[in-house]
Write a structure and sequence with these properties.
By secondary structure, this protein is mostly helical. The protein has 16 helices and no strands.
Length: 405
């Protein structure tokens, strides 16, 4: 049964990754071809706000749900099904001429995807025992990467039928996902918990494990996200064409992500999420340090730009898998949707802030070398922090009256 659940999760996360990637791959390209200014195209990122805002409605997912349909599936199924008419309506619009309506539909699609993501993450906690969640986290990262490649394939339909063909293809994929969820087994697994009373999501910050996980998130994401927005510009500055830079990020980055997702899943499975996070952060810190020192001593070269791009995908995925394994480990099964939505929502906003900060540092203070140097420091600081968190969690679990396993 666990293998069946993992296979279902792979397909589910693949569809989520495709729907999410579609709006940062296909829509900006269609807008640019129609003559939209870059300033307008840049606003399309607002469609992703629901992934950061999902903690606001995640408590509803923990409180309500049909026992007949399946507590989590009763949210995932309608959230997936509504994507079909939304994509079909998007196919009828002109991306530039109907930009306001297009963004409203995009916001609706990503809201549904974010809701489904929160329910799916909670479903992992309910359906899989702790010793299987490492593979689930690896499957999540790898399937999202494959979803991005699939979205790129859908975008290739633009040459055949333009925007309507792309949006219609997404409606077809969404319909396939709806059928998958309809066939999903109803039973809820060994960790199923009764519905939880409604609370405000930030009240969960009173849990010491949630707070410590938030501290780990901030250190790990600082090390990862400081250079993440710079690798494309580094490629161009090193003399690579835009097409080559995009190919490296798309094909090379996709392959690096899938391989790192498998390695990260194994690490979480073998050593637990905190030790896996320590290993991933050490690898990320050492890689960032090597790139920073090379930039400082030798300057930027095409090979180094390629290495920086692959570093962002490979090290980023390794830490992502471990970090999300940590999130699932500390989530209260009664409030799994709330806890995971809170942590991943804060992760999104904090990551965006740090990526913007990295751009400012590169342009105003330390250049590319300075950014990678600071990223190395943050990642290496995350290593002892992760190990200390493990010791603190172990001590709390062993203390009298502790409700933690």
């Amino acid at each position: 049964m666990n293998r069946r659940v993992l296979a279902t999760l792979c397909a589910l996360y693949l569809l989520q990754g495709t729907s999410s990637a579609f709006f940062y791959i296909a829509l900006p390209a269609a807008l640019r071809e129609a003559g939209a200014p870059v300033s307008l195209i840049g606003t399309t990122f607002l469609a992703y706000l629901p992934f950061g805002l999902k903690p606001l409605w995640a408590p509803l997912l923990d409180r309500y749900g049909s026992t007949r349909t399946g507590r989590r599936r009763s949210w995932m199924l309608p959230a997936q099904a509504v994507l079909v008419p939304l994509f079909l309506m998007a196919a009828l619009l002109n991306p530039l001429g109907d930009f306001g309506l297009m963004m409203a539909l995009a916001f609706g699609i990503t809201t549904s995807a974010a809701t489904q993501n929160a329910a799916a993450d909670a479903w992992v906690v309910e359906r899989l025992p702790g010793d299987m969640r490492g593979w689930a986290n690896g499957a999540q990262a790898g399937s999202h990467a494959l979803g991005g490649l699939l979205a790129g394939g859908v975008a290739a339909l633009h040459g055949l039928g333009g925007w309507p063909a792309m949006a219609t293809a997404m409606a077809g994929l969404s319909a396939a996902g709806t059928l998958l969820l309809f066939l999903l087994p109803v039973d809820r697994g060994e960790n199923a918990a009764p519905p939880a009373p409604l609370i405000l999501p930030w009240h969960r910050l009173a849990d010491p494990d949630i707070r410590r996980s938030l501290g780990l998130l901030m250190l790990a994401r600082t090390g990862l996200n400081l250079p993440v927005g710079l690798v494309g510009a580094m490629g161009v500055d090193a003399g690579l064409s835009v097409g080559t830079t995009a190919l490296i990020g798309g094909v090379g980055g996709g392959a690096a992500t899938i391989l790192s997702a498998a390695l990260g899943g194994w690490l979480v499975q073998r050593f637990g999420p905190t030790r896996a996070l320590a290993v991933g952060s050490a690898v990320c810190g050492a890689s960032s340090l090597a790139i920073g020192v090379t930039l400082w001593r030798l300057g930027l070269a095409p090979a180094l730009a390629v290495a920086a791009s692959l570093h962002v995908f490979a090290a980023g995925t390794l830490v992502f898998v471990a970090l999300h394994g940590q999130f699932m480990a500390v989530a209260d099964p009664r409030r799994a949707a709330t806890d995971l939505a809170l942590l991943t929502g804060l992760e999104l906003f904090f990551g965006l802030f740090i990526a913007s900060l990295g751009g400012w540092i590169a342009g105003s203070v330390g250049g590319y070398a300075g950014v990678f140097g600071l990223a190395a420091v943050a990642s290496l600081l995350a290593v002892p922090a992760a190990l200390h968190h493990r010791q603190a969690a172990t001590a709390m679990a062993a203390s009298p009256g502790s409700g933690r396993p």
